[in-house]
Amino acid sequence: MIGGMKTAILGALLGLALCVPVRAAGEDSGKLTESAAALLRDGKTQEALALLRRLIAGNPKLFPAYSLLGVAYTQLGQLEEARRYFEKAVQLAPRSPQARNNLGANYLALRRPAEAKRQFESVLASDPTNLTAWVNLAQSYTQLGDSPKALVALNRAQQLAPEDLEVQFALAEARLRTGQAEAPHQQIRELARRPGGGLHVMALARKNIDLGDYNAALALLELLEGSDRSSAAWHEMKGYVHFKLDQPEPALEHLQKAVRLEPHAEDHYLALAEFLGANNAVGTAVTVLEGAQKILPRSVKIQSGLGVAYLMNGNVDQAEALLRAIVERQPGHEVGYQLLAECYERAQAWDNLQAVADQLRRLNPDNGIGWYYAGLARYHVRQGQGRGASLQVIRRYLGRALQIQPNDWRSHVLLGKLLLEEGKDAPAVLAFRKAISSNDEEPSVHYLLASTLQRLGKTDESEAAFAAFREAKAKEKARQFRTLVVNTHR
Q1: Of 310, 292, 313, nearest to 301 (Cα)?
Q2: Domain for residue 40, yes or no?
Q3: How far apart are CA 265 and CA 233, in angstroms?
């Protein structure tokens, strides 16, 4: 929920998608595609989705619409769904460099650099002057751990655009990764002083945050000077980095500073609230978001965040009322339905969860969360009341969820439980291990794995899993008992 922390590739994706020559699809389709692109630029993702779905329903071969659908789902943070649409665009227009650049950027965001590399190499085979492909090819090599080849690609990009600030920043970063520490830092400091340079440093820091390299992000933010390091965006990002480095005091200081500097920026409140929630100050997060709601009474983001905070604080009735009101006012708001589903899961209101999940599936059948919750609700109804769907039906729902989001840890947990009911302990172990590979912080999954291994007689593996369970439980308890002195005054 951290504002401004979306993948740095998103802006490039939208720019690339808009480069597609839409007139080839017909004048009316072209105008509608441009309208959808304008909606995406304005952040009106749901409206853009509705328009784009109508477009492909009438013209299923309109590849620019598929590219823009990929951008829309990227904006929503649903990268696996975005991938499906980018791949469809390439299937329809295999010679389009824009379509392949979009798909490659999506693979980078999904941490699939080998596949990304193939897309950019395909672009460069037909157009060796494509600057975007060279820059992204360098990023593919970086993810593959091949910094020398990343440098070669960026040097080629610099030859094509010697004054391009973004390329120079990428080149400085690549030099950092090859161990040339001092000179690149000085180069970045000097580049930051040029017009627009500060924004590039912020983007570079954001990219390192997306990669989980918080120390590198912090070092980059410290290179900024003057007004660049006094902006609300800088304070929010710096606070977030300290948060991730488990440094709560400076994190709180900077996140609060961001709110004070821009009291009408909803993302700053959400960043502060997430930090407070993670540090066992959920009550204070509620206070912060209730104050934000008074300042921004029409903000769906703030209302959604407040609903989550109520839920974390155990106020299920308040959370349900607020989230229900959101989806009633905006029946196309997918995130609202997802949060309401989580609310019903927490309350163990399985019939309500089933109804909301089915509504979410009708709203967007390509959203894996709707399929997961549909299966989860039916599983618990069957467990508790001995009625409803069969295991085979639940498996079908879950299979669809995993097809859309193959790395969703919750779906793998539920799959493991279904396999246990079917007496398939060994496949269940694989499902639980897959869940842990995506999320190793949830104690219950380690316990499920340990107890299943124990039944299989795998004593050593079981003991290791129980040890992991105890460790995860201890970390969870430490988070719960951390307290902060928080100043909520602005």
Answers
A1: 292
A2: yes
A3: 10
Assign 430 a pLDDT band (cuts: 50, 70, 90): very high
Q: Which of 48, 76, 110 delimits the end of a domain?
A: 110
Q: Let me know if residue 60 belongs to a domain.
A: yes
Q: Domain of 98?
A: 1-110
CA dist 175 and 184 (Å) reads: 6
Flag whether the pTM goes above 0.85: no
Instruction: Tell me the CATH number at 105.
Output: 1.25.40.10
Residue 396 lies in a domain: no
Alpha-carbon span 93 to 87, nearest angstrom: 10
Which residues, including other chains, have CB under 8 Å from residue 61's CB and lie 6 or more apart? 92
Q: Over 70: is that where the pLDDT of 487 sits? A: no
Phi-psi region of 333 (alpha: psi -120 to 50; beta: other; left: phi over 0): beta
**Mean pLDDT calculated for residue range 214-222:** 86
Nearest to 87 by CA among 115, 45, 129: 115
User: Measured between alpha carbons, how far apart are the two ends of the chain, in Å?
Assistant: 21
Highest mean pLDDT among 20-24, 199-203, 242-246: 242-246
